[in-house]
Amino acid sequence: RAFWSQRRSRNKVDGNLQDAIVELVRVHDGKILASQVKRMSALIENITGLDFARFTKSMMLSQGQFAAFLNAAANERAELLEELTGTEVYGLISEKVHQQFVESKQYLEQLNARAEGLDILTPEKVEELSQQNRELDQQLSQQEHRYKILQQKVSWLDKKAQAQTSLKQSQLELEKVLQQQINEKSQLDKIERSKPAELIEPIFQQNKIISEQLSKQNSQLSLVKKQQEEVDFVVKQQEEAVTLDKKNLDRIRHENETTQQLINEKIIPLDAEIHQLSNQINSLQLSTQPLIETQKNSLEQQQLVNEQLIRNQQALNRSEEYLAANKHHAQLQNQLPLISAQLERLKPLQEAIDKANASYQVQKEEWLISDKQLQQQDVEIASAVLKQQQQAEQLIQLEKEIVNNLLIDSAFSHTDIKDLKNTYIELSEGIIEDAVQSLRTQYQSYQQQIKDVELLLIQERRIEDLSAERNRLQANEECPLCGSLQHPRIESYKALDISHTEKRKNLLTQNLIETEQLGNTLNGLNSRWQQAKVSVEAAQQLLNNEQQKKALLEKHQIGLKDQLDRNSLVMQQQSQDYQQLKESIAQQLKALELSMPTTENMDSWLDDQQKNSQQWLEVTEARAAYQQEFQNLEQKKQHVAQQLNGINEQLNALLEEIQLKENALTEKQKNRYQLLPEADIALVRKNIDQVFSQAENTLLLNQEKLTALTQQLQSIHGQSITIEANIKQLQQEQKEKQEQWLVALLDSPFDNQQEYLNALMPVEEKESLLALRETIQHGIVKHQGLVDQAKVALQELTSDPVLEGAENLKGSENWCQEDIKLNIEEASNLIKSISQQQGEILNSMQSDQDKRKRQEGLLLEIQEASVSYDDIAYLHSLIGSQKGDKFRRFAQGLTLDHLVYLANIQLNRLHGRYLLQRKQSEALELEVLDTWQGDDVRDTKTLSGGEGFLVSLALALALSDLVSHKTQIESLFLDEGFGTLDSATLDMALDALDSLNASGKMIGVISHVEAMKERIPVQIRVTKINGLGNSKLESQYAFTATK
């Protein structure tokens, strides 16, 4: 439920509008959703789905716009649909899709450019490095196995030497421990000598304890004696304090009796007289209160009248000053309506000029931006041309390099290569692949030849090693190696030349290395050629794209320039009209002594002038009221002054009598204070009683302290007697224990107590010697065991163990440790060399893998970006456009189709003859289907007045349903549109409106056609009167202000 109320000031027709009172309430629970205008408008728009503009367009067909939608051009109809239905969001979506498409495309191009700079190994090179790594692994495994066996040999020798050293060390440690046992014998013997002293130690300790107890009791007795003397002194002091308290109590008792006699004989009579005088004074003062109150009220009334006179005079002066200073405001009431109408015409002109100027500035800025973009595009094209040339030159240089390297490969004829070199035709991948395959075959051939030569060289070296044995061979004698009597190949072996075979091996090895280097070079050049070729194609594509962008920018700039020129002409015409109207208004304002308001504060200026006019009338009326009020206040002032004089005479007589009574009271109070300063007699009596009680309590407390001290003194005396008895008993026990100790000392091997004390060992020393004895015994056992273990270990290492897998170390049994270390160093150097080669290969492969990983991540990014680009490109092809036209047209087409469907429902209800349909084209155009003429298709422009009215009314109702998708609108207002209809068409139109009214809609019609008065029962008549745009209703609707 919505509520809106707005009143005028002072309940007058021409009063200023007050702030609106609004309220939006939920019906089922009464909750207030909004009580402010802005909040309420937003909630209503959210609930109904309509703002105010769309609401009015959905339920009102204004004059001149009745058939606007039906007869509008396709583009204008699209704008009307978007404005009515709020489908501008589809254009924004289309623009956003285009923006995302451009961003995605640029991002993909950046990623592709980054991917061009990575250089990775070819698969053949990776396979070759892997093969080398495997061969090095085998060599490394062999050398590590040999190194391990040699280390085991060295370890065995080291263990044997360590076992011998350990045996010697253990024997030395055992000798040290035995020597320590001999050295510490005198100290260890103390343990045996201390045993007799330990047997009589308990008796000695008991005697010692009793002596210590006796000494303690003697000390305690001295303390008790001293405490007894101190307490005896305190008791004497407390007895003196009790005597002084008794004397003080007698003195206080005498003073209390004197004070009580003074109170009864003098103070109490004086207090009675003082009380009587006080009551008389209070009675007189009470009599003055009504007079004082009346006097106060009269004074306040007099002051109030004076202040009212001052304010009245000030207000009257302000009114006179205002009327004198603002004489020109007297004509505002007559001139302001005309000026207001002219200013209202001025405001839309100013807004149109500002809007056109803003549009002009935006378009000008857009043209400047387009010009900068065009200049930037020239720079981009120049950069793209330069980049394309650089990439092409790099490609030609690589082709030259590839041709030069192909001349090295004998697999190609020099004639073919020369033709390639001279013409620089584009190389195909097949030529390079053939060259690499040829080099690979040649490389394998060289490897096989090297293996054959190495085998032959080994055989020749073996034959050469046996030359001494061959020289000793004699004909018909057995060979010491094979036992043969025939030696047929002696001469041929003598002819062997090992150096020739080695030269052949070196030559083949050099050819192998050169072939490998050439293959690597061709692979690297092929990879670089492929990348250069891709770069050239990308640079050419970039150049084409930049040139296309430039053409589009030039076309866009020409359109912007034409639009700027048109807007400039419109702005000049609008400025001229605005200036003429402004000068006319300024002349009228000059006569009223007013300045021309600005467009921004025009509304507030009009409100101010309306207020000024209203204020002139109000001040004029107020001045007369102030004058009348001033006379009334003067009469009231004289009456209050007469009343105040009578009250003052009565009050002065009472005050004189009160003064006499107060003087007598002051004399009595002075005498009373001199006798007893305290005012409260009961309190005085209470205080003297309290002082007496305190003195009694003090005496009792001191007497109790004296009793407690006496008891404490008796207790201390009892303790002294008990301690003396304990001392006598301990002395007797000490004597008995001393005799027992002397007997035990005589029975022991000690001559006197000093020898006993010397023999008795301290606990720490005894524990130390026992630990020393335990350590020596443990050391002997430990080192004897280590000597035995070392002998066993040395016995086990006397023979060299048989090492498995040491076929290549046969004859190493007689090697000394230096020979073994030399072989270990040789194997270690080989392992380091192989590891270094492996490290280089692995570094190359790892670097290639890292590059590939980075490329994989980049390729994955490119793949994801490509997928995203494909998606947004497909979406862009469907709905994307720079200005949002594509998707907007599609949405507007769907909206128009739905609108036609709704309009046909309304047409069928109004008149069953016609149907609307959309033309078979992309434009938003309509046509009419005449079902009574065999579904004849007609253009909307061929419809008659009545037919056009029916179709336009159906479209208006359909638009109302389409716009108000959340709220059902049950009303429709038609402003004119009937004057051009003939009688038959008018009857048809009114029949249609009656049909709508019967279906539940409220139909409002604004018209001057006389024939409609008979058909419309409920009417509000409006009569035109003199003046621009002035009309009046019938008298029954007139507003009468209430007083």
Describe the protein in words.
The two termini are 32 Å apart. This protein has helices spanning 37-48, 52-59, 68-71, 74-85, 88-115, 123-183, 185-193, 195-325, 332-406, 414-423, 429-465, 467-472, 490-494, 498-591, 602-675, 681-747, 753-759, 763-796, 817-879, 885-910, 945-963, 983-998; strands spanning 2-5, 21-25, 32-34, 60-61, 914-918, 926-930, 936-939, 971-975, 1002-1006, 1022-1024, 1031-1033. The strands form 4 sheets. A 3-stranded antiparallel β-sheet has the order 1-2-3. Strands 4-8-9 form a 3-stranded parallel β-sheet. It has a 3-stranded antiparallel β-sheet with strand order 5-6-7. The protein contains 22 helices and 11 strands. It is mainly alpha-helical. The radius of gyration is 66 Å and the shape is flat. Among the domains are: 1-48, no CATH class; 50-86 and 884-1037, P-loop containing nucleotide triphosphate hydrolases (Rossmann fold); 123-190 and 765-801 and 814-851, no CATH class; 351-468 and 490-574.
